[in-house]
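Appendix C reproduces, verbatim, an entry submitted by the partner laboratory led by Prof. M.T., so that reviewers can inspect both the input and the predicted structure.
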Amino acid sequence: MKKILLLTVFLISVSFLNAQTNPLWSQKKIKNYLPHMTVPEVEELLTKTDMVIIPVGAIEQHGKHLPLGTDFLNGVETCKLIAQQRDVLVAPVLMAGQSPYHMGFAGTISLSAETILKVHMEAVESLIRHGFKRFMILNAHGGNRAITTLLADQINQKTAGIAVDIGVAMRPFRKPSGFPAPKVFDRHGGVSETSRSMYYIPTLVDMDAAVTAELSLPEHMEKMLPDVIKGDDTALLVFLAEGLKMEETGKKTSSKEMSTTGVWGVRDLKESKAAYGKGMSDSLVNAAVAFIDRWNELRPFGTK
């Protein structure tokens, strides 16, 4: 009888406590993730490292099956995984990026390059003031590529900080991910990105809503596709110079003008697998860790 009474009291206590907390809260504290850290934890991290990794993502349409926050969320999760293996601060600054060519789909937010650059520069200057020195910029959205390249350069040119584009920095350390090369066009919101999302943010992927897109490309771009798919670097360069540009350019290549769903690809989305996403993530994270180790060899923590 006593045990039953104690159990009853325990259950009532648990129910009372649960009733006093936000029922929507589901996060757990992540090591080295700035939004979760206290001031003493940041101070303690500064005794071990001066490195920061900043994911630069986007809030934009990703078809019918992926969330608008795909780029931002996947970028943050990548950085978190890196920071569990090496002491670096993960400091996301902005959710939105440069996405004017997706504005035909509800929910997309697009910021100017000038705004993105200015906000990140001010954030970096804040972190430098606290004692951080080295910055790795992780571009999680293709449309930000020129911005993140310039951001790393401006940090180096205008502040006491030292910055690299981590995507470029880890290239010598990348190993094959095991993801099968596509035999058809497969880019934004396609099988590759869906597979990564199934690994990074599985509860936000709705495969029941996944619909393979029908594309309508300008004729001359349609003719380039076979070379793009084969991996012709020149064809890809020229293709992307025109592809995915806002409606106002008159190129007829905004996502709304080219795709029935917003996905830029025709590969069957049902081919997506979390295992493929894990392979791509492991390849990236391991390469980033290898680069961090090499940077620490070349410029040890504490170097003035």
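The first helix runs from residue 2 to 19. Additional entries are available on request from the coordinating office.
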